[in-house]
Write a structure and sequence with these properties.
Blueprint lengths: L3 H25 L4 H22 L2 H25 L3 H17 L1 H24 L11 H17 L1
Helix pairs in contact: 1-2, 1-6, 2-3, 2-4, 3-4, 4-5, 4-6, 5-6
Length: about 160
C-alpha cells in the first residue's frame, strides 16, 4: 500500500520540530520537554499508524524498540560523558523515526551523528575552550536523523 500520504507529512513535522529544537539548543543549551514530549508522542502515533496502514505492525514495534534503544544508549552517555537529559529524551523520537526505516538508515545516521557532533564541537575547539566546554548536541542528532531519513527514502 502506498503510504506517502502518511509518510511525507509525518516526516515534515518531525524534521520541522527537530529544526526548532536545534535552534533552541544552540541558543540555550536546552531541549525543552514542552517540545520533546509532544514530538515523542507524535512519533509514536505516527509509527503505529504507518504500521497499520502498511499492514506491518511488526515494523512499528521494531521502530518503537529502536527509540527505546537510542534512549538507553544516550542515557549511558548521560551517566558517563555528561550528555544532557534533553538529549536522552530527544533520542527516543529520533531513534523511533530512524527505526521505521531500518538498520541501514540507523547506520547512516550513526555516521551523520559523528560528523554532526564534530561540527557542533569544532567552534569550541577553534576558540580553545578545550574538551570540557558545553556543546549543544541536539543539532547533531537532528542532522543525523535527516541523513538516516534520506537514506531510507532513497534506498
Amino acid at each position: 500500500m502506498d503510504n506517502t500520504w502518511l509518510l511525507v507529512p509525518g516526516l515534515i513535522a518531525i524534521v520541522a520540530v527537530s529544526a526548532w529544537l536545534s535552534v533552541i539548543d544552540i541558543r540555550e543549551h536546552l531541549l525543552p520537554n514542552r517540545l520533546v514530549g509532544p514530538l515523542a508522542g507524535g512519533v509514536a502515533i505516527w509509527v503505529v499508524v504507518m504500521g497499520l496502514a502498511d499492514g506491518d505492525i511488526g515494523r512499528s514495534v521494531a521502530a518503537l524498540g529502536w527509540g527505546f534503544a537510542a534512549s538507553a544508549v544516550f542515557f549511558v552517555f548521560h551517566l558517563t560523558a555528561g550528555l544532557g537529559m534533553g538529549d536522552v529524551k530527544y533520542a527516543w523520537p529520533v531513534g523511533a523515526t530512524l527505526g521505521w526505516f531500518g538498520w541501514g538508515s540507523i547506520k547512516v545516521a550513526l555516521v551523520g551523528l559523528a560528523i554532526g557532533g564534530l561540527l557542533v564541537a569544532l567552534p569550541g575547539f577553534v576558540q580553545r575552550k578545550g574538551l570540557g566546554h558545553r556543546v549543544a548536541y541536539g543539532p547533531a542528532m537532528a542532522f543525523a536523523m535527516v541523513c538516516g531519513i534520506a537514506n531510507g527514502l532513497l534506498v
